[in-house]
């Protein structure tokens, strides 16, 4: 009957919608994990840059002291 066909069509659409929603959630979860990893890597890089700047500052201070001692 027409009603049965309509109900069947609606069921198929609902199932497809459910499957697509699951797929979208999986992609969103994956994107969130990647974002977290990128955030962690950025934090680590920032810490490394800070350490490098501190080392350069120390070297610069030593060079200045040596230059003043040589004069």
Short structural description:
By secondary structure, the chain is mostly helical.
Q: What structural keywords apply?
A:
71 residues; single chain; rod-shaped; 1 helix; mainly alpha
- How would you describe the shape? rod-shaped
SSE pattern, N- to C-terminal: H
Number of strands: 0
Q: Please identify the structural class as seen in this structure.
A: mainly alpha
Task: Average the pLDDT over all residues and give the rounded result.
Answer: 97
The number of helical elements comes to 1
The end-to-end span amounts to: 104 Å
Assembly state: single chain
Specify Rg, calculated over alpha carbons: 31 Å
How does this model look, in words?
This protein is mainly α. It is built from one helix and no strands. The longest helix has about 70 residues, at about 1-70.
Please give the structural blueprint:
Blueprint: H1 2-70
């Amino acid at each position: 009957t027409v009603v049965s066909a309509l109900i069947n069509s609606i069921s198929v659409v609902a199932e497809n919608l459910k499957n697509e929603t699951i797929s979208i959630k999986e992609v969103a979860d994956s994107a969130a994990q990647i974002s977290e990893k990128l955030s962690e890597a950025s934090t680590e890089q920032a810490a490394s840059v800070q350490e490098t700047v501190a080392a350069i500052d120390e070297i610069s201070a030593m060079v200045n002291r040596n230059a003043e001692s040589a004069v």
